[in-house]
Amino acid sequence: MITDKLIAERISYERNCGYWGVNNHYFFNKAECLRYATQIKDFNVIYHYYDSAFQTVKWNTETNETLEQLYKKRAEQLRQKYKHVAVLFSGGADSTNVLDSFLKNNIPLDEIITYYPIKAIDKLRPFFNKNDKKAENIIFEFDEAAKPKLLEVAQTHPNIKITVVDNTDEAIDAIMRNDLHNVSIGGLGTGPHLTGLRMIAEMMMKCHEGGGATLVTGIDKPRMGYNPANKKFGTWFDDISGHNGLHTDDALGGFMPTFEAFYYTPDMPELWQKACQVMKRAMEPIVTSRPAFYNDLYYPAFAIKGAEIFNVHHIFFKQLLYKDWSASIFQAQKPKSSFFQDINNWCLNTTLTDKKFKEYHYGQTLEFISGIDPKFISYDSNGKPLKFYDSRSKIITIE
Length: 399
Description:
- There is one protein chain.
- With 399 residues, this protein is of the alpha/beta class.
- It has a domain at 67-334.
- 35% of the residues lie in helices and 14% in strands.
- The chain contains 14 helices and 14 strands.
- It has helices at 5-15, 30-40, 51-54, 67-81, 93-103, 118-124, 141-156, 168-176, 195-207, 239-242, 269-283, 315-321, 345-348, 355-368, and strands at residues 19-22, 25-27, 46-48, 84-88, 111-116, 161-166, 213-217, 223-227, 232-236, 259-261, 308-309, 377-379, 385-388, 396-398.
- A five-stranded parallel β-sheet has the order 6-5-4-7-10, sandwiched between helices. Strands 11-8-9-14 form a four-stranded antiparallel β-sheet, with helices on one face.
- Strand 12 and strand 13 form a beta hairpin.
- Helix 4 runs antiparallel to helix 11.
- The radius of gyration is 21 Å and the shape is globular.
- The two termini are 35 Å apart.
């Protein structure tokens, strides 16, 4: 807990991540923040993400550079900043564009790292239906999207190290040794899939000691909404996108690996700003026609019922921001739970693990959320906890 916002902001720059605030107290672990908020009965939790850089953006100016030029510029910036640059690659649109920003511009890249439960995928592959894009099938993006790209890079750029991490066994072991709390990233949630990030962080700790190494993440497309009352567009940062690999202090013996967000970076806020402007210009002529990318959710921070929130994961935005992205590449739906995330269904809802494992996982999850008011938690119709409600930064009106 920190009581000085200036100190919290400085630490956020050092750790390359956001933080949470309530009652002038600041935290780098969401679960800890929510427990404190519960104790003092203050439910006004605000997420802060480089406020000094993003909350002060001047919207009356815009760079003349294109998004593609800014992507290249950002890749060059990272190359100059670190001795060892590794891209965390999932096969999705965001990380593919990050990877291509290095490859297509001939900017040297040291390593590409991806993690999936490979052993589990091999066993479940016969049951996979490519036409079924439910969230639990996100693990098959390895076969359908990531693996083909990695094979291509291996042929065209043999000097780049390609590392595929199989976290199947580690995911199961973490549950069975009661270690789930140590794989929680930023205290946002729990899940066996997070063991992959810890395994990668351990690799960075062992292989790149002494600093000078970073893992670049493809987080994320700008969040955006529209207020029909004043006809204004707004943007913000969700904490689910801004934690940026923040491990607990105990997870790696105090070691904090360096993660860099490619898009959400205070080192180049004009990249995020440009993406917002491109999205706004594309939506202005069609915003009242209720296009397919509407989430149609009420977002209280807009302070008006019926405010529109856009689903930025829709193909409309992927192709708008990443000109080479193809709709033919398999992409599953986004998970809806952070505690029992669909990506973990391979071990939570199959016979690959036993009843004891599932009970251990459920018990550790309940332990993780203990002491936190249910008002902060989303539950399903059976009372099963799904996730913490997202915390968001202050709305920024895009002029």
